[in-house]
Amino acid sequence: MKFYHKILAAVAVLTLFNNLKSNAQGCVAIRGNGSFLTMEHPMLDTVLGSDKGWLFTSSYRYFKSFRHFRGREEQKERLVLGNEVINHQSTIDLSLTRNFNQFWSVTVGMPYLINTRSSLYEHGGKERHTSKSNGIGDMRIVANRWLFDSHKTHTGNIQVGLGVKLPTGDYNATSTFYNVTPAVRPVDQSIQLGDGGVGIIAEVNGFLGLGGSFSGYTNLYYMSNPRNMNGTRTYRETLRATLANEAITNVPDQYMARLGVNYALKGAFSAINVSAGARIEGIPVYDIFGKSDGFRRPGYVFSGEPALNYSFRKVNIFASVPIAIIRDRTQSVTDRENSKNTGTFVNGDAAFADYSINFGVSFKL
Questions:
Q1: pLDDT digit string (tens) for 149-196?
Q2: Helix (H, G, I), strand (E, B), or coil: what is residue 46?
Q3: 3-state secondary structure of 84
Q4: Coil, helix or strand for 177?
Q5: Per-residue confidence at 10, pLDDT binned at 50, 70, 90?
Q6: Any idea what the Cα angle at residue 198 is, between residues 319 and 255, rounded to 5°?
Q7: In Å, what is the CA distance from 49 to each residue of 195, 243, 254, 259?
Q8: Out of the domains of life, which is the source (predicted)?
Q9: Distance of CA 183 to the CA centre of its chain
Q10: What pTM was estimated for this model as a whole?
Q11: Three-state helix/strand/coil letters over 99-157
Q12: Greater pLDDT, 101 or 1
């Protein structure tokens, strides 16, 4: 068993370390692409399921992004002047998992998004107006496999997954904008319902007993979007001529990593798990596959994440509140192009949230 422990610890630590060194992640937090459960041993049989059966999960995520950052520097004057962009984003995610045995499972998930974006600059700069979008997002299908037999391994395991993200969400959602005259046009990339790309999803989930009531967990997620641009117009070129290279929306990769520790309080028919960990998520500057032209807001959010899980019989209720510690809006490809063309350092800004609220429930059917 010590051999398994070493493998689990090395994978969790090294993979998170590699993600921390990556170029950058997202402006506002990662899109709603499904819930991420805390994987710990006390919940293995009641929630994840080690044998045949179905698991239904419904989760909700909300955040308000309004603090503007350029790099890691907050533009506090935006709040004083009242010209900050304010996004309210809610995601309701429904997923169904089929466990075939103690090794294999397949999950199908579909998010529903409700977004509003309040700004001045998109509406002529004099009056604040709100653009909106709501509807289904991008569907995902992921096949997962536990590396070790859960019937024999009770203190740690690793689950690997590979899947696809389908462009079922509208990536050209429109709303009314108020400039000289009202006009209907595409909403900002941050509140589009989809990205228009067929994504390749890779994920790793793991748990490890640390002795007594303590255990560790890790959730690692990367979605590669090979498509370059999706054809949706941003209208950014109307703000300044130098933004002509940002006229069309890019289809970016996304990633997330979580690592933390659980403490379990187990009763006869239920268990409460209190967790504390770290979370990093967002959008890289460059995609792994394909080009990275057009408009994107790369950057990352590094958060501390307290979480709570309560499981009883075939039900699990979970909640977490990632609280932002570091927010970084990094230079995009177009920023670097404009820096070279103008001879002046260019780094776009982005609005970030202070925290996000995540909660949901899973039922083993």
A1: 878 887 899 999 999 999 999 999 999 999 889 999 999 999 999 999
A2: helix
A3: coil
A4: strand
A5: very low
A6: 40
A7: 32, 51, 28, 22
A8: Bacteria
A9: 31
A10: 0.87
A11: ECCCCEEEEEEEEEEEEEEEECHHHCCCCCEEEEEEEECCEEEEEEEECCCCCCCCCEE
A12: 101
Question: Quick one: tokens of 139?
Answer: 């569907």
Helical H runs in the chain? 2-21, 77-81, 333-342
Angle, vertex CA 278, rays to CA 276 and CA 282, nearest 5: 145
CB 214 within 8 A of CB 277: no
**What is the pLDDT averaged over residues 236-242?**
92
Two tokens at 327?
């927010």
Q: How far is CA 257 from the centre of its chain?
A: 9
In terms of DSSP H, where are the helices of 176-247? none
Q: Please tell me the predicted confidence (pLDDT) of residue 31.
A: 53
Size of the chain in residues: 365
Q: How far apart, in whole angstroms, are the C-alpha atoms of residue 25 and residue 261?
A: 24
Residue 66 CA to residue 87 CA, distance in Å, equals 7
Q: Are strands 315-320 and 350-364 parallel, antiparallel or unpaired?
A: antiparallel
Q: Record the tokens describing residue 69, joined without a space.
A: 């950052």
pLDDT digits (tens, 9 = 90+) for 23-78: 332 344 455 544 344 333 334 443 444 568 999 999 999 999 999 999 999 999 99
The SS3 assignment for 19 reads helix
Tell me which residue of 363, 364, 361 sits closest to 60, measured CA to CA.
361
Query: Could you give the 3-state DSSP secondary structure of residue 229?
Result: strand
Q: Tell me the three state secondary structure of residue 250.
A: strand
Closest CA to 308 of 290, 320, 300: 320
For the stretch 214-232, pLDDT in tens is: 999 999 999 999 999 999 9
Q: Give counts: helices (H), strands (E), the chain.
A: 3, 19
Map tokens 């995609």 to a residue: 287
pLDDT at 152: 83
Tokens representing 246 are 């940002």
